[in-house]
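Researcher: First entry.
Model:
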Amino acid sequence: MFEPARKTPKRPGAIAAALVVGSLGMLGLSFASVPLYRAFCAATGFGGTPQVAKANSTEQGSRSLAVRFDANVSRELPWRFEPEVPKISLRTGETTTVYYKATNLSDKETRGQAAYNVSPDQAGAFFVKVACFCFDEQRLGPGETAEWPVVFYLDPALEKEETMRRVEEITLSYSFFPTKAPATPKTSAEAGQKPKS
C-alpha cells in the first residue's frame, strides 16, 4: 500500500528568518515607493506629469490646442506669483516660451520650489518641457521681482491618441512651496567656544 510522503516540520529558526527577510524587504519597498512612483509618472505622464526633453521638437503637427497657465503659492511663502499671459494657442510640435513673474512681498530673503502638473491627466504624456524654473530652488531677496521662463511643446503624437481627440485645452499648473534655508555654518570662533553653564 502506498503511503504519502511525510512533510518534515519547518524549524522555528527558518520561519523567523523568512519573516525577518520579508519584513526588511517590505520596509525597503516602502522607502523606494516614492522615488519609483515619481520615475513612473515622469516616464509615462501618469497623473498629469509632463515629460522632459533636452531639445526642441523636430516634428511639426497640424492640430492647435489652447494652453492655459495657472499659478498658486503656499500660504507659508510670501510671494505673488502669476503667468505673463493666462492662455495661448499652440500648434503641436511648436516650441514656445512663456514667462512667470514672482515677487517677494516680505522684507527678508525667501526660497521656494514649484511643484507642477498638467490637466487633463492624459495630456501629461504629450506636454514636453525643454527648460523650466521648476527644476531648481528659486530665491528672492526682500521685495525682489523676477521673471522665469518655461520652454515647452506639445508632442505631435497626441494627434494619434484616442484619449486626446476631444481635448481642446490643456492647463499647466504650478504651485510654489517654501524651502528651508541651509543652516548657517558656525564661525571658527563660535565653534571653539565652550557652552556656558
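Researcher: Second entry.
Model:
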Amino acid sequence: MTDEPLHQRPEGASDATVEAVGKVSEAFEAIEEVRGRLYGLHRLVGTADLALGEAVELLRKAGHEELADTVDREMVGRNVLPGMWTFQVVETFDEGYYAEFRRIEKLVRDQLMDGRRHVYEAEMKTRERTHGQPGHEPSPEVLDPQDLQADSLS
C-alpha cells in the first residue's frame, strides 16, 4: 500500500473509508489555516493599534489636539467585536470551534485509521511518484534500489 507502516491503511479499511477520512482531514487542515489567519489578524490589529497610538502622539506634536483626542478616544484600544479584543477572538475560536473540530477529526482517524494520519495522501504518493527518479524517494529513510543506482550514476 504505502512505503511507511505509519501511513498504511489498517487491515479491512476500504477505499471509501480511506477517502472519507482523508476528506475529514482535508477539512481540518483548512481550519488550521483559518486559525493561522486569525493569529495573523491578531498580530496585525495589534500592530495597527500601536501605530495608531503613535499617530495620536504625532498629531498632538503637530498641533492637532482635538483630532488626536478623537482618534485616541474612538479608535485606540477599540474592541474589534462587541466586548472583544483580538486575543479574545483567538482564544474563543481555539477553545470552541477549533478544539471541537480537532477532537472530531482525531475521533474519526482513531476509529477508522487506528489513529494514523495522512493515509490517503501516503497512498497517493505511492501511486504518483516516479520510482527511480531523484526527488521521488518514498521517504527520507527508505530509498528504492533504482533511486540509489540513479544517484550513483550522477
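Model: Note on the second entry: The mean pLDDT is 90.
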